[in-house]
Amino acid sequence: MEKVLIYDIKYLYTNNNTPPVKGDKMRSVSCLEDAYIYIEDGIIKDIGTKNWDKLKCNNPYLYNAEGTIAIPGLIDSHTHLVFGGSREHEFSRKIGGEDYLEILKSGGGILSTVTETKNASFEELYSQAKRSLDEMLLFGVTTIEAKSGYGLDLETEVKSLEVLKKLNMNHPIDIHVTYLGAHALPNEYLGNRQGFITQIKKDLLVIKEKKLADFVDVFCEVGVFTAEETREILEKARELGFRLRVHTDEIKSIGGTEVALKNSAKTIDHLMAITDEDILKVAKTDTIANLLPSTSFFLNKEYAPARKLIDTGAAVSVSSDYNPGSTPSENFQLTLQIAANKLKMLPNEILTAATINPAFGLDIHTKVGSLEKGKIADITLLNCKNLDYFFYHYGINHTRSVFKNGILVVENRNIVKRL
Ligand code: NIG
Ligand code: FE
User: E-strand spans in 155-271?
Assistant: First the structure.
C-alpha cells in the first residue's frame, strides 16, 4: 500500500460545504494551521493539525511541506485545449481596436484556427496540447474540462476528441471532455444554417456511440448561433444523455441563458452581458455560473458581474477559457488573480470557484474539489504565506508542488519524471 504523509503545512484551506456552494457560503473556507494530510493509495485518510508524528509509525513516504500552504488541486472547468497553430497575426489588429466579431466575420478568428486544426496531424495536435497541459499542471491544476470545436466537421472533431482521450490516459491531469461542434458556422454552410444544425444533431449520435465526450456545448451569440438553434442542439444532446454547458452572454444577451437553464445545463459560461433578470433565475438553480475573466482581460471587454451573481445567491466558478483567440494563456493563477482584481471576488470565494464549484459543474464533486477524508488526494502546495498573498503577488507561479491521486507530480516547479 502506498502511504504518504504531507506535514508542516502552514495553512490548509478548503471549502467543505455541500456543492453547489452558493452566495455567502462561497466565503466559508476552513483554514487549519500547522496541518498535515495522510494519504493511503491516493485517498485522503486523515487531515489534522500538529500531531503528525503519531502517523510516522505507519512508515509513510514523508513529505515536508516546509511551512507552505495547501489547497485542493485547482480545477479549470473551461478550456479549448486542442487546436492547430496560433493567432499572433491577429494580435496587432486587436490592439488596433478591431473587434472580436469583426475579425471572425472576415474569415479570421475561430475559422482560421479551424483551418489549421484540419491541416494538423493527430501527433501535432497531441504534442501541442500536451505542452499546454504540462504548463497547466505546473500552475497547480489537477483537473480540467476541455472542448473540441476547431474542427466543425465530424472528422476533425473526432480527431480532436481522440487527442483528448489519449492525453487523459497519458497525463497526470484528468480531462473531462466536451463536444463543441457548434462553435462557429463553417463557410460551407453559409446560407444553410439549418443544414449545419441538422448535421450537428447527426454527429452527436456518432460522438455518443464512440463515447468521445461527456458534455455538449454551444456558442450562443450574435453572429454565431441563435437561442433557438442552441435549444435545438441542446435538446437533442440531452435526449442522448449528454450533460450540457453553454457559452452564453459573452458579448450580447440573446436568450442563451434561459435556454441553458431550461435544459438544466451544468454550467453557463462567460456571462459578461447577463441581464439582472437572468441573474435572479440562475441563483434559483444548481447551474454554475462559470466566469472567465482572462477573456475579458485579453479582449479588453466588460467583466462579468461576479459580485451581483454571488450576492444574489448564485454558485460561481472561475475558469481560464484557454484558447488561441481570446485567451492564449495557460496561467490559471493569473486568471484567479484577475478574478480578485477585476471581478472583485474575495480570496475565499475564488478558492471555492476554482475547486469545489467547478468540481460540481463537472459532476466529480464526490471525489475531488475539497480536502476531506475519503476524497482523492489532489493537492497543490503553494509557496505563499497565506491565501491572500496568493492573489496579491500576481503574475508569478506560486506552485511549490502538486500531488495527483496522492502521487507527487510537480516538485519545485518541475514535473517529476517517471520511468
Ligand atoms: O470561449 N467564445 C467562443 N469561443 C472561445 C474563443 C475561441 C477563439 O477565438 O478561438 C471563447 O472565448
Ligand atoms: Fe470558451
Answer: 174-182, 215-219, 243-248, 267-270
Q: How high is the pLDDT of residue 105?
A: 80
DSSP 8-state code for residue 304: P
Q: Which residues of 373-386 are buried (b: 16+ CB within 10 A; e: fewer)?
A: eebbbbbbbbbbee
Ligand 1 centroid from CA 408, angstroms: 33
Distance between CA atoms of 194 and 191, rounded to whole angstroms? 9
Nearest CA among 286, 243, 232 for reference residue 261:
286
Q: Report the distance separating Cα 242 and Cα 213, nearest Å.
A: 8
CB–CB of 373/44 below 8 Å? yes
Over residues 139-161, the pLDDT tens digits come to 999 999 999 999 999 999 999 99
Around ion ligand 2, residues with a beta carbon closer than 5 Å are: 321
Å from CA of 241 to ligand 1 middle: 25
Mean of the pLDDT values across residues 189-198?
A: 97
- Report the predicted TM-score, pTM, of the whole model to 2 decimal places: 0.98
Counting from 1 in the atom list of ligand 1, the atom nearest the Cα of 327 is: 12
Q: Indicate the average pLDDT of the chain.
A: 97
The rounded radius of gyration (Å) of the Cα atoms in the chain is 21
* Amino acid of residue 152: L
Domains, the chain, with CATH or none: 3-72+371-415 (2.30.40.10), 74-361 (3.20.20.140)
Indicate the pLDDT class of residue 407, thresholds 50, 70 and 90: very high
For 376-385, what is each residue's pLDDT tens digit? Answer: 999 999 999 9
From the number of C-beta atoms within 10 Å of its C-beta (0-12, 13-18, 19+), residue 92 rates as exposed
d(CA 401, CA 383): 9
> Closest Cα to residue 162, out of 125, 194, 133, 134?
125
pLDDT per residue over 297-324, tens digit each? 999 999 999 999 999 999 999 999 999 9
Determine the distance separating the centroid of ligand 1 and the alpha carbon of 113, expressed in angstroms: 10
- Residue 419 pLDDT > 60: no
Pocket of ligand 1 (CB under 6 A): 80, 109-110, 113, 219, 247, 250, 295, 321, 323-326
